[in-house]
Write a structure and sequence with these properties.
Largest sheet: 2 strands, antiparallel
Number of helices: 13
Strand content: under 5%
Order of helices and strands: HEEHHHHHHHHHHHH
Radius of gyration: 24 Å
Length: 288
């Protein structure tokens, strides 16, 4: 009786949360089956025709390829820089707390401010990056950081700068609860710093790294604001037009709401499949 009463009291909240969570997904599935203008009334049921059109569109596969490159490279670089910074700032030295706070600065900056800042720094005429590289005689002529061959590099640079503090903060929090006795015992046994990292630190970080890679992979693959502000999806922006931008432009530039919803559904299926494989690999390695 008491259990039933508790469930009934929770039922309104569960219905609200379930509706808010599921309704957008269900509506998007329905929209993906329609030939519908983004704003004009009227619609026509076309079944899976939109999925056929999307999967046959070369621009879809180009956007998918760009999205995979962008998410993979940025996640790897965020991990390398974030782990390195966390290991460094886990050590004791004067001013450590200042640097721990300062390193979080990029993560706190609004995206629009960060992108504008880097567009100024990377400007081919008066940008500080080109000026510094020329002053050090590393380059002879200024690099056009927003050309078709370099804009992806610029986007990756901005994204890594903005989001590696998340990795740093998460790894640092985990490092602080690793029992110091493990390192003391390893030192007594003559283990080098590299051996302590690979045999103590890395295994202790395994669970946290699993979560970080999963979250950062999803967030970077679905990243919209930074990519949009860097390229706008057209012109040279075509060379960084990932799937979120492709879906947005199909809906709000070409007014094809059905096609845009279809791209969103395909993205959802891709991420669900990738996450399932990722969980499977983790369970096999953990022997679960």
């Amino acid at each position: 009786m008491r259990r039933s009463t508790g469930f009934l009291l929770l039922l309104p909240s569960l219905l609200v949360i379930g509706t808010l969570t599921l309704y957008p997904v269900v509506y998007n599935v329905w929209l993906s089956l329609l030939n519908k203008h983004a704003f004009l009334p009227g619609e026509k049921f076309v079944g899976l025709r939109n999925y056929e059109l999307v999967l046959k569109d070369p621009q879809f596969w180009m956007s998918f390829k760009l999205g995979v490159i962008y998410s993979l490279v940025t996640v790897v670089l965020q991990l390398v820089i974030g782990i390195g910074a966390a290991l460094l700032l886990h050590e004791s030295f004067p001013g450590r707390n200042f640097f721990r706070g300062a390193i979080l600065f990029p993560y706190l900056v609004p995206t629009i401010v960060g992108v504008l800042l880097w567009k100024w720094l990377l400007h081919d005429t008066y940008g500080l990056v080109n000026y510094t590289l020329q002053a050090l005689n590393l380059i002879k002529d200024p690099i056009g950081w927003f050309g078709q061959d370099t804009i992806m590099i610029s986007l990756i640079l901005v994204s890594v700068w903005q989001f590696f503090p998340f990795v740093f903060l998460t790894i640092l929090a985990r490092l602080q609860i690793i029992p110091p006795e493990l390192y003391e015992a390893a030192k007594v046994d003559g283990a080098s710093a590299l051996q302590r990292f690979f045999y103590i630190t890395l295994p202790q970080l395994k669970t946290v790294l699993f979560i970080i890679i999963l979250l950062r992979g999803i967030w970077m693959f679905t990243k919209f604001d930074t990519v949009w502000l860097m390229g706008g999806g057209e012109g040279v922006g075509l060379y960084i037009r990932t799937l979120p931008l492709y879906a947005y432009m199909k809906t709000f530039t070409y007014w094809q709401a059905g096609i845009g919803a279809t791209v969103a559904m395909v993205m959802l299926l891709i991420m669900a499949g990738a996450a399932a494989i990722y969980f499977k690999i983790y369970k096999v390695e953990e022997g679960i």
